[in-house]
Design a protein that fits this description.
- With 200 residues, this protein is mainly α.
- The protein contains ten helices and no strands.
- Helix 5 crosses helix 9.
- The longest helix is centred in the middle third of the chain and has 31 residues.
Length: 200
């Protein structure tokens, strides 16, 4: 990759990060090219160069959020794969701890999560863009695969319904940690759910 291309990618990443902060702090309606320029500390017009329209700016931000979600799912998959190489089966408490760690990692990126939730609500009339952040996305397909693998690896039912339940529970816990109580521990809830699933 040329230095110019690398520099352009870095600038787009900085614009996406700044746009996420604007949305997280002030809401989607506050997202403008000028607001992002100010937030990023870059010359006026720089954001417009990389995202010609507001729609393009929103899509740049959505793509950045989706890429981070994909990386999170891939990291969890790698952790699970390494764990599954052990002859000892992963147990419910260990699985709950792994998922709780993911919840805490996601919730620690508070601006990302707040921007994601705001965009999901705001983009009702743009289903193709909204889908990149919801259950219609390729990220969700990867998340489903990883979740099914985790449940099966712990000897738990891994039907489509159980997979979707666990994903919904995890999403809810991330929201709770992000928007309601930053100190709440997700682990007891996940442990109780997984134990209930084991005995169902």
């Amino acid at each position: 990759m040329s230095t110019h291309a690398a520099s352009g990618n870095q600038r787009r990443e900085a614009i996406a990060d700044s746009g996420i902060r604007v949305i997280a702090r002030d809401g989607v309606r506050a997202l403008t090219h000028r607001a992002v320029d100010r937030e990023a500390g870059i010359p006026q017009g720089s954001t417009s160069y990389h995202a010609k329209t507001r729609q393009a700016l929103v899509e740049l931000i959505v793509d950045a959020l989706a890429a981070r979600s994909k990386a999170d799912a891939e990291a969890l998959a790698a952790t699970l794969n390494a764990r599954f190489e052990s002859p000892r089966r992963i147990d419910v408490d260990e699985l709950a701890a792994l998922i709780a760690g993911l919840v805490e990692t996601l919730a620690s990126r508070r601006d990302d999560m707040r921007a994601r939730y705001a965009l999901i609500l705001e983009l009702d009339d743009e289903p193709q863009v909204r889908a990149r952040l919801t259950a219609d996305s390729t990220v969700h397909a990867l998340t489903r695969h990883v979740t099914a693998q985790a449940l099966a690896g712990a000897g738990l039912p891994a039907s489509d319904a159980r997979v979707e339940e666990l994903i919904a529970l995890t999403e809810s816990l991330v929201f709770h940690r992000t928007a309601i109580d930053e100190t709440a521990s997700p682990r007891p809830i996940l442990t109780a759910y997984l134990r209930g699933s084991a005995s169902a």
